[in-house]
Write a structure and sequence with these properties.
Length: about 110
């Protein structure tokens, strides 16, 4: 499984960004598919994920601000990020688990700063 993330950039506090992750196979065949992030000097943490049932969960720190979605026609996973805060500054990674193997895409940097 190959994962290609994009959409990062510099945004002011309170702003929005949408990340995209193009997946090389049907998203419905992957369980789970997710977004993680890693800030400098910090461990990588789960941001949001889709399970095979279609259910989702989110890190407490992003609930109500971030939304994960998917378009299987385009084989693309999205992360809509609203009301961004400086503490959201991180490299964001797309993740997939397929046939008991973990796959990671290259990250995309999100910087929230005025």
């Amino acid at each position: 499984v190959q994962l290609q993330a994009s959409g990062g950039g510099l945004v002011q506090p309170g702003g929005s960004l949408r990340l995209s992750c193009v997946v090389s196979r049907s998203i419905f065949s992957i369980n789970p598919v997710a977004w993680y992030r890693q800030a400098p000097g910090q461990e990588r943490e789960l941001v949001a994920r889709f399970f095979g049932t279609g259910s989702t969960d989110y890190a407490d720190s992003v609930k109500g601000r971030f939304s994960i979605s998917r378009d299987n026609t385009r084989k693309t996973l999205y992360l809509q990020m609203n009301n961004l805060k400086p503490e959201d500054t991180s490299v964001y990674y797309c993740y997939a688990r397929y046939r008991a193997v973990d796959y990671w895409g290259k990250g995309t940097l999100v910087t929230v700063s005025s």
